[in-house]
Amino acid sequence: MKRYKCKECGYIHIGDEIPGVCPVCGYDSEVFYEMEDTDKDKTYKYYDMIDSQNDDLLQLIRSTIKDSSDLASLALAMYVQAEDKEKSYDAELVKDTAFKLLNTSSTLTMFLGEDLDFSTEDNIEILKKRLSKLNTNLEKISDLMREDYLEDEAEIVDKTLINL
Predict the structure, then answer these.
(1) Where in the numbering of this chain does the Rubredoxin-like domain appear (predicted)?
(2) Counting CB atoms within 10 angstroms of each CB, which of 46, 48, 61, 88 has the fewest?
(3) Rounded to the nearest 10 degrees, how much is the dihedral formed by the CA atoms of 21, 54, 44, 67?
């Protein structure tokens, strides 16, 4: 399948032919250009949001996103632990598993489309807002750790703050 990108809004269409009109911004097919596939073996790809009103399907997707994200966190923690114990084979195995779990979660997130906007710029703004909320929670965790005299652990949490 070929990939075509709208120059106006950033929408990516996957298919054999350019759409007649961009479904997002309404411009005609002249605004589309074919994207080069720089790495055909790349694991992650862009997928369009599914069009479904099936509540059971949507709820299962949401649940699976959470489960695969949680498992990816666990696998990454196992990777760090295996690296610390100098078990490189085990470390690489769980690191690869963590990436596969995150890929599953991101694919389902694209299918769901609830947290994604149509342009990269808008998505970055959404990500910044959600990172701000995450950082606020991390700061609260750090403060509560300090109240429990867990200073070393609080310093580790402080290092996990993410800025974009």
Answers:
(1) 1-35
(2) 88
(3) 150
